[in-house]
Hints:
single chain; Alpha-Beta Plaits; 3 domains; nine-stranded mixed β-sheet
Amino acid sequence: MAQRMRLDKLLAMLGEGTRTQVRDLVRAGRVRVDGAVARDAGMQVNAEESQVFVDSRALHYKPVRHVMMNKPQGVLTAARDKRQKTVMDLLPPLYPAMGCMPAGRLDKDTEGLLVITSDGQLAHRIISPRHDVGKVYLARVDGPLAEEDVRAFAKGLSISDADGEFEARPARLEILNVSPQESEARVRVMEGKYHQVKRMFASRGRQVVYLKRLQIGALSLDPALLPGQWREMTDEEIALLEQDAPQQD
């Protein structure tokens, strides 16, 4: 069924300004709908099928938006913050206007895969522990790692937080490189407690010096995205998030 709505509402949802601002655009003759200059900001349009232009710029409505971002270090994973830059500040106004929010969090100093979506159910599926959506991280830590650490991660680690101690679920630790000064490893966890990966390594006497999320469920970060870059997700990528969580090897 075609989704019809007022032109000013559509323009506002697409990030073209407040209702008052988009009415000014219409009054200035800068908006065209299906080839004709729009004269009435309250006119009904087909949100998904009408061809809407502001000046020479075509606008495209989607009822739901999904974004893949390579979150950079130094940016908060939050909708807004009065003092610090957030991941939403890296996106055009269209996305917050469409109700997009980060699905889960990455620490300020952690980079990597972040999904930003207006689909609340999909976001809940990514975040909720009961859906067993695994997350894979690349970590560099100070000092050497050993097979004892691999076994400890696989068994599950006792971690303390403000509420006391809790048992982190078994995780997969794959050691990639080892030296006396620094080691690199890939970690797969099945939950997302506060600073969890860092605290798991800390329980083994190692401090994380670099952390990057590579994967959520079956969805991998696009290697072409540099830190701070983003793009809309493909239908195939969205399907990867919606499918049953893959089992741990």
